[in-house]
Amino acid sequence: MSRHPQTGPLLLVNASHPLPISKTPDLVCADPRWPEVQLDRQAAGQLRACIRAVKGENAIVPVSGWRSLDQQQAIWDDTIRQEGEAFTRQYVALPGCSEHQTGLAIDLGLAAETIDFIRPNFPYSGVCGAFRKLAACYGFILRYPAGKESITGIAHEPWHFRYVGTPHARFMTDQCLVLEEYVELLRRKHSKQPLLVPAGSRIYRIRSCRELFREDLDAALAGRCQISSDNCGGYIVTDWR
User: Which residues form the signal peptide (predicted)?
Assistant: First the structure.
């Protein structure tokens, strides 16, 4: 058995599970026109591909991507001053507990002369609706849907998308699961018997574990599987061997 770094696209980050690492992820611009909005490299590539697929290059604007701890603290403090504590706790994650600090989360807005940084307009119709329908195919989920507030601890945010990877995004979207529920499902039911998820030409075998076998680490190094910490004391192994 062995341990693995606390990283990966399935990190659960919320008020009960603070970000476990301080290392800055491998970041690139989500869109060269907005160089200040950065994402994890793989997430950024998939986001651009999804926006191109719906011909949304001139309509969909990346509003907020990776944030440092200091930036998240400043947003928290500013929103508290301007909107009050109740509003802030609904729409802004606690510093150290924000998905934006992973580089895997992106807030999107419909292009307009003025865009609200905290609550950008990203409707369910038009090009934004088309993006929603394809998002899972490119590895993104709507992280804070309506009806799941008691689980996520965050109000419905139609603009906030999280990269988790294609097989996971497809399964979560099909089953109407948020990341908290998905991690718990894997831990409860798929530690011994993997979850099988078809995506494209592959069938992915997904399992949860507390410790990793040497064969898992070797397969990950060889590019035959992916290991992600779940930030709940275990790992999620996604195997396509």
Answer: none
Count CB-CB contacts under 10 A for residue 33.
Answer: 11
> What is the CATH code of the structural domain delimited by 27-239?
3.30.1380.10
Per-residue model confidence as pLDDT tens digits over 7-37: 899 999 999 999 987 677 899 999 999 999 9
Residues 6+ apart with CB under 8 A from 133: none
Model-wide pTM > 0.85: yes
Residue 157 annotated to the active site: yes
Q: In the structure encoding, which two tokens stand for residue 1, read together?
A: 């058995």
To the nearest whole percent, how much of the chain has pLDDT over 70? 97
From 113, 157, 181, 211, the catalytic residue:
157
Q: In terms of pLDDT, which residue wins out, 51 or 213?
A: 51
3-class DSSP assignment, residue 20: coil
